[in-house]
Specification:
With 468 residues, this protein is of the alpha/beta class. The chain folds into 2 domains: 3-230 and 432-452, Aldehyde Dehydrogenase, Chain A, domain 1; 234-414, Aldehyde Dehydrogenase, Chain A, domain 2, CATH 3.40.309.10. The protein has 15 helices and 20 strands. The strands form 5 sheets. It has a 7-stranded mixed sheet with strand order 12-13-14-11-10-16-17, sandwiched between helices. A 6-stranded mixed sheet has the order 7-6-5-8-9-19, sandwiched between helices. A hairpin with a 6-residue loop joins strand 3 (106-107) and strand 4. Helix 3 runs antiparallel to helix 6 (161-173) and helix 9 crosses helix 10 (273-288). The protein is globular.
Length: 468
């Protein structure tokens, strides 16, 4: 057993300390989860719905203190933390209202008197979750998974351990039985052992590319279903006919909210040449207007980054990009405060081969890329190992739809900010992972899609079907 402390990223002071779970305690959690699944799978949708509605109510009733925990552990401005809790409640409401419909048996006519497709829960799903949206990342998996009759074991990022325990409390207070949702406090190095355990049926990860490779390797060795939502270096394409005022305003929000620590934040701003200078002027002005500081103060737009090493990595990326020919238009290193602050940076003249173009910049730094025309903008957008989300700005919607079909990403948002929504599937391609969260696609990821055949219909098809 080891002990670790969580740190307030705004002050660099210790918040509290925790002990990691010993093997016997992990074993007990997994046993309870396996026992809870037997009851959960047989439970009615009505019973699940009531509990999930209770969870939504609990989140709303305790929004203030839960948001304060988020801000204290990872530095998100308090207004953004409150919005995160509200979004979790809305997700619970969505799946409480729609899960039964989304998982209803589907007729599938064949040579049987009756045949249909049924959705059956898989069992205990291990969720390996990151710190950047410590409640939302969990709830967008947990709400559909629990409504589907699965149960969950959460291995959260250690720097948001109190958030993990508060989420466990939410589901317990909502009436979910012991073991239906439980946290294990273990380091990342223990994840492969959890995946190896036969009581774990499947794994979902939101995290880095390296973490995805590690989890996929362990899951593949055990032939277990996985969903991976990994990094992104989302393109924000601005064509010459775009509404530049709106594009710059949304660009600043997309890049700098949550201190830029979002997988689907816009990161590479690819601007068609005729609009380039005007967009850069507007976007840089918006970045300079942001208030950086104490995340508990209402006027703050950008809080600290979650950890000091993350800030230093981002600063090195920006410095290396400038050293390779980029120009720092605003922002950069901040040496005047305690805490892990980094002033919102805008770097122009970015090209392929520079760190801010090639890698994921997970923090408040924006790369501006000039494109000759729309075709080059698309080529530059696709010149990435990632393919999570993307943005496209133009007044020509028909043209936008055609361009969207050429973009290698799991989502394309036209004239608006990329965001996850319970009603829409969420996930990526290439090194951004595979599988989908949310919507009907997400709730079906951790289901046994079971064919049920009753027959045969001898009047319609007298012959026996051929064996495989």
């Amino acid at each position: 057993m080891s002990t670790f402390a969580t740190i307030d990223p705004a002050t660099e002071r210790e918040i509290e300390s925790f002990q990691t779970f010993e093997p016997a305690r992990i074993d007990a959690v997994l046993d309870r989860a396996r026992s809870a699944f037997a009851a959960a799978a047989a439970d009615s949708f009505a019973a699940r719905r009531l509990r999930m509605e209770n969870a939504a109510r609990y989140l709303r009733d305790h929004q203030t203190e839960l948001a304060a925990t988020v801000t204290r552990e990872m530095g998100k401005p308090l207004a953004e933390a409150r919005a995160e809790i509200a979004k979790c409640a809305a997700c619970c409401d969505y799946y409480a209202a729609n899960a039964e419909r989304l998982l209803a048996d589907e007729p599938a006519p064949s040579n049987a008197t009756e045949s249909f497709v049924a959705y059956r829960p898989l069992g205990v799903v291990l969720a390996v979750m990151p710190w950047n949206f410590p409640f939302w990342q969990v709830f967008r998996f947990a709400a559909p998974a629990l409504m589907a009759g699965n149960v969950a074991v959460l291995k959260h990022a250690t720097n948001v351990t109190r958030c993990a325990l508060e989420i466990e409390r939410v589901f317990a207070a909502a009436g979910f039985p012991p073991g239906a949702f439980a946290s294990v406090i273990v380091p990342g190095s223990e994840v492969s052992k959890l995946i190896d355990d036969p009581r774990i049926a499947a794994v979902t990860l939101t995290g880095s590319e390296a973490a995805g490779v590690s989890v996929a390797t362990a899951a593949g060795r055990n032939l277990k279903k996985t969903v991976l939502e990994l990094g992104g270096s989302d393109a924000f394409i601005v064509l010459a006919d775009a509404d530049l005022d709106a594009a710059a305003r949304i660009a600043a929000k997309s890049r700098f909210q949550n201190a830029g620590q979002s997988c689907i934040a816009a990161k590479r701003f690819i601007v068609e040449a005729p609009a380039h200078d005007a967009f850069v002027e507007r976007f840089t002005a918006a970045a300079r207007a942001l208030v950086v500081g104490d995340p508990t103060r209402p006027e703050t737009n950008v809080g600290p980054m979650a950890r000091g090493d993350l800030r230093d990595e981002l600063a090195d990326m920006v410095d290396a990009t400038v050293a390779h020919g980029g120009t720092l238009a605003t922002g950069g290193r901040n040496g005047h405060r305690s805490g892990y602050f980094y002033d919102p940076a805008v770097v122009t003249g970015v090209r392929p081969g520079m760190p801010l173009f090639d890698e994921e910049a997970f923090g408040p730094a924006a790369a501006i890329v000039r494109a000759r025309d729309a075709d080059e903008a698309v080529r530059l957008a696709n010149d990435s190992k990632y393919g999570l989300g993307g943005n496209l700005w133009t007044r020509d919607i028909a043209r936008a739809k055609a361009i969207a079909g050429r973009l290698e990403s799991g989502a394309v948002f036209i004239n608006g900010m990329t965001a996850s929504d319970p009603r829409l599937p969420f996930g990526g391609v290439k090194r951004s992972g595979y599988g989908r969260e949310l919507s009907s696609f997400g709730i079906r990821e951790f289901m046994n899609v079971q064919t049920v055949w009753i027959g045969p219909d001898t009047a319609a098809l007298p012959d026996e079907p051929a064996a495989e």
